[in-house]
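Why do we bother with a discrete structure alphabet at all? Because it lets us treat a fold like text: something you can write down, compare, and reason about line by line. To make this less abstract, here is a complete entry for Hsp20 family protein. Read it the way you would read a sentence in a foreign language you are learning: slowly, and without expecting to understand everything at once.
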Amino acid sequence: MFTMFDLTPLYRSTVGFDRLASMLESMGHAEGNGTGYPPYNIERIGDDEYRVTMAVAGFSPEELNVEVKENSLTISANKTEKPGSDSSVLYRGIASRNFERRFQLADFVKVTGASLENGLLHVELKRELPEAKKPRTIEIQKVTGSKAIEQKAA
């Protein structure tokens, strides 16, 4: 059973400004990946800094791939079988299947790094507005005295 929450009231302050709110809401619903594997968290760690943390226990850094193309972040894994292993698994409780997860990034969000620690893949994101997009204050000049318009007789 899938439960959907309406988070619209939380996003009212960002209407027309940024797609980050809709990105967060739609990430788990898109791409036909209804299995929820692997589980992930999205954290806000600063004003313009975010982190996607994904549980990837059993995968080595060589088996994981983090790719950014345009405004799309793709995290995938290809589990390779190790040749020469004589053991057989009697019960498999730790999933080790291949996966691919796609995240739609908001405008001006850049991936700044990725790290693997204790079975968790951390992908660091930072929102960097270009100077032209940043708000700026315009100084209001005070005009002193009145200037009359003169008309010359023709």
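What the structure line is telling us, in plain words: The chain is about 5% helix and 30% strand. The longest strand covers residues 109-117.
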